[in-house]
Design goal:
Length: about 425
């Protein structure tokens, strides 16, 4: 079993690494080839759209993996995603044009389409993981990333239009949302002898009743995701308010290293999630705690390595990958990676709590962390600028780490006593 976990972790790591590289390349190309103002617009659009789509996601990717008793069918999950993602697309665009006049409608629409298609693909990745087809998920994600990076670089070389380059990035995601739909349909027909009735997803049962039932039961998962994501996006909004949209774009380029590293951690997290779910179902608390502790050590090692690199060569790498203006934020990079190191530890505790279906507790923890980063940013950004935002992230991650450790240990001990 340990060899399968290692193999699946490597495959998921490869898939998420390719995804992270694609999004990072997009930021690099905008910063180097186009202008900082467009980078700020792009970052602000992502900061608006991402929380809304997370709110509409209901964390279905996790639910599919941990639903070992098949509480809901795949069609029910697909119908839920179809409805809520469509609502999320409409709401996010309305929110953007109503409150953020400095972000163009075309950019909001493009990123909205990207988010919709990405959320559709995500559901198929979860199905592949649940059925043990990590290689299929990796093949699809890596293929999409390679095509996206190629399109980004080609358009950047032949055109001075940043919107055209973003359009190419979105188009590849649209193509792969169709490709993954075909792959999923064929696999299900071959392995389960089941033909997916796509027309039925538009029925009242799948398009309304089931989504509402799942929403009522698991809405706190979406809230948990949103408040967790706002941890990253709130500093962008506060910096934009006090220092301008260009400063927000520059800080987002630096803070993306926290997100990129988080994708590496989530790779191992996703691979270990099915095994943790089995431990929880079997009430094997020792196995659950041992695996969680090992994963936390891996997260700590990756985080500390990032901090060391930032201290030694942070300015060099920022200038190499972005531009001299962003390279001036090397101190911010160090603080951001300190926050990342702390977060990489408790991400695995959150995965274990998912296996225990302790979703509500995580919502409260992330809410506390989000409140901490908001308050700290409001106090420190006006005086210290982006450096204040970076330190606010460290403060908030410390609070979250303490709370995750406390409630996980408490919940496991309660279950152990109930079992005895």
């Amino acid at each position: 079993m340990s060899s399968n976990l290692a193999k699946n972790s490597i495959l998921t790591l490869l898939a998420n690494l390719s995804f992270s590289l694609t999004n990072w390349l997009l930021l690099v190309v905008i910063a180097k080839v186009y202008d900082t103002a467009f980078l700020g617009q792009f970052v602000l659009a992502l900061s608006i759209l991402s929380p809304v789509f997370l709110l509409s996601s209901l964390k279905l990717r996790t639910l599919i993996v941990v639903d070992v008793d098949t509480e809901y069918s795949i069609e029910q999950y697909l119908g839920t995603r179809l409805l809520l993602s469509s609502i999320g697309l409409i709401l996010s665009i309305l929110l953007g044009i109503s409150f953020f006049n400095n972000v163009s409608f075309s950019l909001l629409l493009l990123i909205g389409v990207y988010k919709w298609c990405d959320s559709w693909c995500e559901l198929f990745y979860a199905y592949y993981h649940r059925t043990g087809r990590f290689d299929t998920a990796t093949f699809s994600q890596c293929g999409r990333s390679v095509l996206s990076m190629s399109v980004i670089l080609i358009i950047a070389l032949i055109s001075d239009s940043a919107i055209l380059m973003v359009s190419g990035w979105v188009a590849t995601t649209v193509v792969f949302s169709i490709v993954d739909t075909v792959i999923f349909t064929n696999l299900r027909r071959r392995d389960e002898s089941v033909s997916t009735n796509w027309i039925s997803l538009l029925s009242v049962q799948y398009a309304v009743r089931t989504p509402l039932r799942i929403l009522k039961k698991y809405y706190t998962l979406s809230i948990s995701l949103v408040v967790g994501a706002l941890f990253v996006y709130i500093p962008n909004f506060v910096i934009e308010k006090y220092s301008g949209i260009e400063a927000a774009g520059e800080f987002a380029a630096v803070s993306y290293f926290l997100i990129a590293g988080g994708l590496l951690i989530h790779s191992v997290s996703q691979a270990s999630s099915p095994r943790l779910a089995v431990f929880a179902k079997q009430e094997n608390w020792k196995g659950l705690i041992t695996l969680t502790f090992k994963m936390c050590l891996i997260g700590a090692a990756i985080g500390v390595s990032g901090v060391i690199v930032a201290l030694v060569a942070g300015k060099f790498f920022l200038e190499l990958f972005y531009n001299p203006e962003i390279a001036l934020l090397s101190e911010e990079l160090t603080w951001v990676l300190v926050a990342a190191a702390i977060r990489y530890i408790y991400i695995f505790i959150g995965t274990a709590m998912n296996a225990l279906k302790q979703f509500h507790t995580q919502t409260y923890i992330y809410a506390v962390g989000t409140l901490c980063v908001l308050v700290a940013c409001l106090f420190w950004v006006p005086e210290y600028g982006s450096l204040g935002a970076a330190k606010a992230m460290v403060f908030a991650t410390c609070m979250e780490c303490i709370l995750f450790g406390f409630f996980f240990w408490r919940n496991v001990k309660i279950k152990e006593k109930a079992h005895d």
